[in-house]
């Protein structure tokens, strides 16, 4: 634990007052959870040796006044204003204490529904999600982690299309992962090609929403920026361990824990790479660690300080824990097994079955010592007494895998060489130790001189650092190139197959990203979702490489460099532009956007026929023009206008925007990007300000995308957009 990056992560996130080392953290946590000296030593050794680590809140808060040890929670969101804002309050308390939250917003009535108490109309679930998102922005989790949310809508909710498109505009709902909860019936229609079948008729607008409209919206969203994710309702509930308590329709932020309302995640991960002995896994040692980990996590429940009483009650009723693995790809590399090889999958299935079965056995033993979980009667366990309703999951391990020095969760390595900044601001290339050792062995065996060996090694490292792959270096042995594939080298089908192998022996679900190349088509993404459903997965996240390169994650804004004073531009006598005839909710509009060079310079808006307000249209055009001529980027108008909703537009299926302002914004964007269209309803906002890398908002390093987190994970400082 001497790496400077690890030291900085410890200082920023885990060390408490008076603590100086990782050993101090392990001691504090072990003392807080152990019932006796034997347990204390066992817990300390498991963490200190990096064979096992609990989730970050336990490392942060065990033995402190905060005492909140769970990683994530699910909260109930009802349809009334009190129910909605109670959920908002509960979420704020959870984020403050260091946890993430999952919500299903499907109980909120759809947009346009009547509200009898006010004689008005409902604004729908997406509008309330924006309120939750804004609240998350102002809370820093426990002073050390920012809030993360999962927002879910059932595929049978009338606002499902608006939900699917809720993150089309850059920056919208930035504190949410969003997922659509689909059922088997919907997927069967997709599988049989019944895309024209009407799935929902909106009860207040009479809009007919087809299977194809929903499916294409989901697939297009995934193709463009990885969202929404997809959750499989029926598979989740086929494996619900306590069906007598109700159906499960909510998960935590990264999707690996489907939970009932108010339940919480108590997570920990075993570092599989620590159990490689020669050419095999030391199964007896692994079993001992599993038994220890089950007792450790069960003790976390008893020592937890829950943020609200409902969570304490629900968690205590089922006593679910989530024991999983990390370092899986490292273990495969040490055993010489490619990640996408059938032999590697067989080993992973054997290991996960062993972990799951051993965990069940230990929970049964604990039940004999301390009693079954309170909701045991009516559960799937029948007469087999259990201390915990569920025991296994595969959680994201972004930060704790950095502490453990191993690969994340069950993910393949994203890159074997990447850039890091050290504490004095210098940058250097970090190498995966197993990769570097094997590379030097392979190159050294070529019979070259020492100088040429170093030149060859450095050439490979430079190539991997630049391209992320070795598969196109022809002089390297085929076996080396086959073994050291990265997440982007591996075919997406093998990603799905590996997730399915683990899912067969996991009680909850799996946080994993299906990586696809930039050239992947929408059709391939559709095939991947269907394959996941057929394979018995409970959910999936897909990331198409480069699809988020226009997203700017900027929590800390740098002061712009001072610019020399610019002379005001004088409008020439003649400007060229475009005029669009559009339909809003209440009228038709002529919208003219004139360009000065390549940028919008002035906007004129006229109403056509009855309806609308000519004076307001005139004023809006003048206001926009004034802003454009005084340096306001046109994209700001486009993005802000996209947030304006008008009930007339929402009720009018012919409207080509959410409001008159939204229609105007779309026309400005079309003119700026010089697109030619016949209708506006299929357009999308384009950012023409230039490509931007996905950079960590805390340290500026490039973000990694994996473990079901499409907000990004930083391998430099440990920042995660999903925890």
From TrEMBL:
GO biological process annotation, one example: deoxyribonucleotide biosynthetic process
Cofactor: adenosylcob(III)alamin
The keyword Nuclease is assigned to this record: no
Annotated Ribonucleotide reductase large subunit N-terminal domain residues: 9-65
EC number: 1.17.4.1
Enzyme class: oxidoreductase
Listed InterPro entries: RdRp_reductase_class-2, RNR_lg_C, RNR_lsu_N, RNR_NrdJ/NrdZ, RNR_R1-su_N, TSCPD_dom
Entry keyword set: Cobalamin, Cobalt, Disulfide bond, DNA synthesis, Nucleotide-binding, Oxidoreductase
Segments forming domain Ribonucleotide reductase large subunit C-terminal: 70-381, 383-543
Residues in TSCPD domain copies: 569-670
Secretion signal, residue range per the UniProt entry: none
Recorded superkingdom: Archaea
Classification via NCBIfam families: NrdJ_Z (TIGR02504)
PANTHER family for this protein: RIBONUCLEOSIDE-DIPHOSPHATE REDUCTASE, VITAMIN B12-DEPENDENT RIBONUCLEOTIDE REDUCTASE
This protein's name: Vitamin B12-dependent ribonucleotide reductase
Organism: Methanofollis fontis
